[in-house]
Amino acid sequence: MNFNQLELDPRLAVGIKRVGYQTPTPIQEAAIPAALEGHDLIGTAQTGTGKTAAFVLPILNKLMTGRLRQTRALIVTPTRELAEQIHQNIRELSAGTRLRSATIYGGVGAAPQIEALRSGVEILVACPGRLLDQIQSGYAKLDRVEILVLDEADRMLDMGFLPDVQRILKYVPKERQTMLFSATFPQEIEDLAAQTLYQPQRIAVDISRPAHTVEHALYPVPRHLKRPLLLALLKKTDIDSVLVFTRTKRRAQRLAHQLGQAGYRATSLHGDRTQGQRQSALKGFRNGTYQIMVATDIAARGLDVDGISHVINYDMPDTADAYIHRIGRTGRAEKTGDAFTFITSEDEDLVSTLEKIMGEPLARERLPDFDYQAPMVQGQALPKNSPKSETANGRKPASRTDGKPARKEDRHAGSKAGHKTGHKAGQSSKSRQRSTQRV
Asked: For the chain, where do the domains classified as CATH 3.40.50.300 start and end?
């Protein structure tokens, strides 16, 4: 199938060509026709499968006719980064049309957002907290919304936004089309779907296994040797663009600084950075200014950076779901990638779970000539594994410019999930060359 067979408005062909789409991905092929027919949808798809276009293209297609300069589509998403990415995707796919979108999220000044709302846009991409602010201030009017998308619903649940989402639902018309996308479906999300959608069609694509284009390897290492091993591995690996995941914000900041001292062009992405700093880091990582980005799980979902060659789990994630989303940053759009994971004895339970899901052992590798028996340097502190160490920095919580306490997407965007979900990871393999030896 090609995009011409999806019966989209011909004017959308300009944007489709601009982003380089040739054939629909499985989630696009399944979701777009149903969405074009006006059905409510529940979509479950692995990250990196083209899910965003699966709901953006039907939205654009519907809004090509009808009134302009009023909000007719609302996309609610958990993080600023994901909101900006969806907004950018809309801008690219709407080339050749008169449709416009705007983002609404905290952590930045409200004035440009208010101006966009006053001028009138057809599509809003919003995080829950700031959107409620603008609704209550009278700037955001949702009474003409025809299509509602709840993206990354389980992530919004994890971040504590479900009550805000339920409040937002009171401001949109009951007669609407609703699409809900979620990687996992805990009971709270099932309840939300039951309350929000009418006779939805369920579409599930590759929900339990990582992309087959990614090869996985485990590197057992004592906790105090993780940084030396990372530096040694980077020297021996043909790297292009590397995304390194840590468990805490403080560790991400410190490790990026240490990599910079070692001569690498490195940056960091985490919830303690300002929105300007985060956008600058992402822009630099995308255009090659930085070859390494060290991030917390704020970057695990939704962020689309072309050409990431390696994902390195400096700290093992807490769940198999988190593993899937992390390594989904590489091997995207049928490109190949590698996922390296540093493991300690504390991680064996999750490793065992992953191996049971995959049906085979994960490769465990050792780096030749690396001293795995090196003692801990006197005065060296072991990294704290508790997530509480993320905010144990003595600083006050972020505040908004209006003096009120910052909402959760301002303070904790990308923080560790408070609810653990149950889908597990899988594996396929490809050939690769690396200066390591199997154990």
From this structure: 3-205, 214-367
Question: Of 300, 295, 306, 299, whose CA–CA distance to 256 is shortest?
Answer: 295
**Residue closest to 210 by CA, chosen among 95, 75, 327, 317:** 327
Q: Is-above-0.85 flag for pTM?
A: no
The identity of residue 92, as a single letter, is: E
Measured between alpha carbons, how far is 379 from 308 in angstroms, rounded to an integer? 36
Structural fold of domain 3-205 = Rossmann fold (3.40.50)
Give the residue among 299, 292, 285, 294 at the shortest CA–CA distance from 328: 299
Dist CA 117 CA 126 (whole Å): 12
CA 207/CA 423 separation, integer angstroms = 8
Please state whether beta strands 101-104 and 123-126 pair in parallel, antiparallel, or not at all (unpaired).
Answer: parallel
The CATH code that applies to domain 214-367 is 3.40.50.300
| pLDDT tens readout for residues 363-388 | 899 998 899 998 887 656 555 544 33
